[in-house]
Amino acid sequence: MTESETPSRGQALLEVEDLSTHFTIDAGRLRAVDQVSFSLKPGQTMGIVGESGSGKTVLSRTIMRLNLGSNVQTSGSVRFLDKELLDLPMDEMTKIWGQDMAMVFQDPMTSLNPVVKVGRQVSEHVRKHLGASKTESKDLAVELLRSVRIPEAKTAV
Hints:
Elements: E1 14-25, E2 28-40, H1 56-63, E3 72-80, E4 83-84, H2 90-99, H3 108-111, H4 118-130, H5 134-147
Antiparallel strand pairs: 1-2, 1-3, 3-4
Helix pairs in contact: 4-5
């Protein structure tokens, strides 16, 4: 996210309006997310809470455009930095995933490699998506780990 793209404190970073996600299955149409709306401003934190199977992961995957099956129908609006994500070409979404938005899935064993230090995995992501040098990516990985209060972040890289 460039400085010119960064919203001011009062502007929304992410706006979700009437977002719905339905799956077509043999038994008919399954409503997984039904007209969800919310707005997040810079500095705000929001938790998505619900029972198992209530649609938390489907909501997050829909916002990230990770529901790619042909049996999935999505409607509504997801605006991030004033860009309508549901209409963006996938190459632009890939840039957003690499630079501005990420998702850690519920089971970290499917997201993170348990035999590789987490800092190294973050560093590799930074190198791949931001084109940073090895030194820059390590420094940024340490900074990111510290920002989420990982103890002894430097040794985790």
